[in-house]
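Before a colleague's protein record goes any further, I have to sign it off. My question to you is simply how this chain folds and whether the tokens agree. I do not need a full report, just your reasoning and any doubts. This is what I was given:
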Amino acid sequence: MSTYHTPVLLQECIQGLNIKPGGVYVDVTFGGGGHSKEILKNLGDGRLIAFDQDEDAHSNIIDDKRFLLIRSNFKYIKNYLRYFNITKVDGILADLGISSFHIDAGSRGFSFKADASMDMRMNKAMKKSAADLLNEYPEIDLMKIFRLYGEIKNAGWLAKCIVTGRKNQKISGITDFINMIKNEIPKKQENKYLAKVFQAIRIELNDEIAALEDFLMASGDLIKINGRLVVLSYHSLEDRYVKNYIRTGKCKGELDKDIYGNYETPFKAVNRKVIVPDEEELMRNSRSRSAKLRIAEKI
């Protein structure tokens, strides 16, 4: 597990769940199993259900009769829990970051530092890869995803460069793609810029924002009164959705009112100020630098 992924803000997440020994908990982003193992340490005769759509994560399965791992996207959480006769849970944990395994496993195409195919599929059963996205998307759509998911300032020029380049050479490999866009990469900011580009492509390809919204909306129905929702995000848009959902019950921030004019919000924030890694954790795990943790309690 330690080589697959180092859990971020581990103790803060576990404390945030406020685990009851006999409770039912869900880890919707199993990965290397780091958070799940810590939940089980604090769980008595309760139950832990975990989700992960990536088949590679299932090699980390935990041998524990209290544990069940489901191979699925977490947006289907309500359907799967209903299948296993679970209608309410005491807490849900989500770590929205990509695992170190995916970054380091060059063949999966998530890292710009490896020469591999432009893949980036979290679920290998998906038909289309990142290369297909880059070869098929219209220029305006490429610009939108680079601007929205990568916060790239020259998103328009980058999109135009890709559309122009693919007319002469179909995009397939990482190195060829980087060479195609090299004139748009700011000098002395190569790594930071490419990280944003790859992040934007990955989020769009795997439909991560829509999945997050589906998951958050489902969590309000699933979590018991006084139960906890614990979410780690690594991108400003993800964090905004989580913050809005906790504050208003809607991911885009709109407020609903009941017949008396009172705002209807399913959760209250436990931590008014977002929790971020301290200097010690940043020294141990530099990949935690963009992590933001929000904890909410069902009311």
The longest strand covers residues 223-233. The beta strands are 24-27, 47-51, 67-70, 89-95, 223-233, 267-269, 292-298. DSSP finds twelve helices and seven strands in the chain.
